[in-house]
Amino acid sequence: MPDLLLELFSEEIPARMQRRAAEDLKKLVTDALVERGFLYEGAKAFATPRRLALHVAGLPVKGQDVREERKGPRVGSPDAAIQGFLKGAGLSSIEQAKIESDPKKGEFYVAIIEKPGRATPDVLAEILPQIVKNFPWPKSMRWGAASREPGSLRWVRPLHSIVCTFGPETEDPEVVRFTVDGIASGDMTKGHRFLAPGEIRVKRFDDYAPALERARVVIDTDRRKDMILHDAKDLAFAQGLELVEDEGLLEEVAGLVEWPVVLMGSFDEAFLDIPPEVIRTTIRANQKCFVLRDPKTGKLANKFLLTSNLIAADGGKTIVGGNERVVRARLSDAKFFWETDQKVKLEDRLEKLKSIVFHEKLGTQYERVERIAALSKELAPIVGADPALAERAARLAKADLVTEMVGEFPELQGLMGRYYATLQGENPSVAAAIEEHYKPLGPSDRVPTDPVSVAVALADKIDTLVGFWAIDEKPTGSKDPYALRRAALGVIRLVLENNLKLPLISLLAKPFARDAKDVLFEEFLEAKKLVEAIDDSAVAGLVPHPALPDLESIFRQRQLGNAEGLARLMYVRALDLLSFFADRLKVYLRDQGARHDLIDAVFALDGQDDLLMIVRRVEALGRFLDTEDGANLLAGYRRAANILRIEEKKDGRAYNEAPDLQIVNDQGQIEEKALAVVLDAAKREAAAAVQAEDFEGAMRALSRLRQPVDSFFDKVTVNAEDAGLRANRLRLLNDIREATRTVADFSRIEG
Amino acid sequence: MTSEPAHMNPARSFQGLILTLQRYWAEQGCVILQPYDMEVGAGTFHPATTLRALGPKPWRAAYVQPSRRPKDGRYGENPNRLQHYYQFQVILKPNPPNLQELYLGSLKAIGIDTGVHDIRFVEDDWESPTLGAWGLGWECWCDGMEVSQFTYFQQVAGFECSPVAGELTYGLERLAMYLQGVESIYDLNFNGLEGDRKVTYGDVFLQAEQEYSRHNFEYADTEMLFRHFRDAEAACRKYLEDGEPKSGSNDQRHLMALPAYDQCIKASHMFNLLDARGVISVTERQSYILRVRELAKACGAAWLKTEGGGAAA
Q1: Contact A194/B119, CB-based, under 8 Å?
Q2: B116: which chain A residues are within 8 Å (Cβ-Cβ)?
Q3: Per mean pLDDT, which range of A91-100, A216-225, B198-207 is the poorest?
Q4: Chain A partners within 8 Å of B162 (Cβ)
Q5: Upstream peptide bond of A544 is cis (omega within 30 degrees of 0)
Q6: Does a structural domain hold residue B81?
Q7: Domains, chain A, ranges and CATH?
Q8: Is the CB of residue A50 less than 8 Å from the CB of residue A12?
Q9: A319 with B116: Cβ contact below 8 A
Q10: Which of A101, A203, A215, B223 could serve as A196's disulfide partner, Cβ 3.0–4.6 Å?
Q11: Which of A10, A143, A358, A359 is the best substitution to test chain B (most B C-beta atoms within 10 A)?
Q12: Mind listing the pLDDT tens digit for each residue in A557-574?
């Protein structure tokens, strides 16, 4: 079966876009073919800096013939009807139609319309120009004389030529002819820009790939990556060194060359005094080179590997020399920054943070540091850190933002602070916290464990979250410009992985209300309507919480006016933030494999603002439900809840009072007496266990209900004839529901 | 080129490099202009690029532009940074289809042999917030060093470029350092001569770097600069208004786009100086940039109503 070869040859495509573009090309072309009924055996797309290529194997020569029968009018119908039928079916005379008959309709005409399948090249010539014109580049441009006209072709960089051939392997394939904005398809391409700049005629993929290979172009990105990695490891090995692997860099450099040639350069050993991360970042970011280390010591070597795009006439001597020059200049800069930065102590840099705006409404980095320091100090006892160290670490945590080094390499923030702090003799925990307070940066990043780091990391994230919630800049849909989801996940992981008990609601509102600058709240006060709206509706019906009066007294002390309104506003926003945490926690727990219904069952209870307790409860609940006692109790609960629902609806009232033990004792059966006794004990025990945060104990207490509940349903008729007895039995059922609510809302449990 | 005397060799002489590039681009049909006689932050600000990039008329020009970046001054102590340096600027509108080849030809002309040097086009999208301009292109690497910027202008002064111009910017000092194999800008051989007739870059510019660094960071009169910024802004607006075609007149062309644009350039430089003096806060910074951009946009709009911008009488 015939193959399609397509190549789009352009000026240099950005490395980061190549892989995606190749995949897009494959999908767009094969989807368009399949949509038109053209199936294929296989397809593979390729990208180099100068071309996208696509090979679709095993396409049919032409599309399927389509045969359609169309019923017409009865034989002997008026001429107008016959003519209309002929026209619609594309026949020239009625003799071309068949006559068929059926018992109802009698004899009538039938037209057979046969559409032969279209030749594949014709279909390709129709599909491909559209795909090229509408190609989904992340950024595209116009160019040249054609850009004078509106609607001219856009491509990632100027598109120069198109190869498009189609045909079986045994014959010469034909060129699929089409034109896109003046560029005509053909069968000519070019080799490597410098090593084989001449034109090459190609037939099909089978000779295209080897012809390009001869012209020093490796079209497969993964093969270029393999070549680079292999050569890099060999060169390193020959020097007794080890390559510091870097997948991101490898992918990028493979997108910068059509023919990779790896070369080794070196730099003055004196530069090895600079922290290794700095050397690596400099060489990677600016020069796109790999660094090497000594496998014996694990330390960086004074060597680097560059990937050139040239088999140089002098064996690469000039290229290595040039790269060494640049690396030397870059490392000199880095060394200069490293040395100058050390001349100013971190605490003396804080003043400069006043000129860095964190966010227009949330103030400068300086103000933020003040807030984080206060909060770190407050958190310290909770996480087991020395408050003075936590405060010190927080105060210095952002100072490296105004160092020369971080100014040049923002990705080194935190790490440089740690180096400079260590050099100026800070406590090791303080120095570590300066680096680690940014962590965890993502779901797979390490979570700090040193209590000082934990305190500052939490304070940093909580301040960010509360701040943006206060000014109502929450993430929406896919937009999360301040990475607030990541910050919330960071808090969750810090809390859970360090087993911390934090009453979130107070933390989320109080420190910010206390420490944020007046102007922020003055703005809220100016938007009076907002505060009033909060007054009227949002707080009404909320469970009273000590955080609210606390907030009010803070605002009273600050003498900002309408302390009550501000307190409520901040409280409502904190509650909203708490529910954001709940959502993020659900996502986190689901990723960990927890059942989402159990999470819901726990969140449905009031006042859940302690992440660790929530998770413990979910875990205990899961284990309990896996036991026979748990499963049976759940069944008993459901039976009770069902009966209650039906009867309460029938009676139009709720049976949520405590059961009358007198009635139980006087009129009840032995099974309901037993249930009443056990319920009372189980409820008290479970509540006490929950109070002591012993969720296993609470579940154990509940498990004792299983037997009496089962017997109750076996032997006792709830709907007794005596109305008083019936009502009391319903109250007993309600009590089962109440008992389970000490640990979770069982109505949310599925399965 | 073989008949070139040794002191004109781009590998030995800074001015030889400039002259070689001028000659090369003159061969490509460029008008060789002289630097614009105002303080600008980059060659792009020259009206021969900013304004000529707008409108339908073909245009080819090349020129050296002294560029001032007050913040980059290092009192002459950093071997790689200057507050005043040279850019060599080429603009071709519309860009010819072989612009990359022409660029590589210019490298060859200054002695960069692609048989031994590794030349690469590395993605670099260009944007000038003050000019309301952007384009796509690359930074051009030679053996790992950025030696030029290559941009296809898509928009200038907020207007779509139609047709698109190709812009090349060579960082002359850096390129010369590579060609001459020196580690400090100040060691560059300026005139290509040797012995006591040799003049270095340091001989010409070191004192200026020291003095201007002092001026830019410590002494520039900020009150005056703020005033000049406001004056330039007001003058730009006034000239744009005064140059507007009179209603009812047959000639609907703008009469003073160029003088107005000079004031836009001036405002931009005042802003750069104030920025270097550290008297513009981060929030104000954005608003100053926006003010200059508004001027640039208004000048671009006026230019499109002139003959150079393609407007009919």
Answers
A1: yes
A2: 312-314, 317-319
A3: A91-100
A4: 147-148, 150
A5: no
A6: yes
A7: 3-61+119-214 (3.30.70), 66-115 (no CATH), 221-341 (no CATH), 358-502 (1.10.3210), 504-593 (no CATH), 611-748 (1.10.730)
A8: yes
A9: yes
A10: A215
A11: A143
A12: 888 878 888 888 888 888
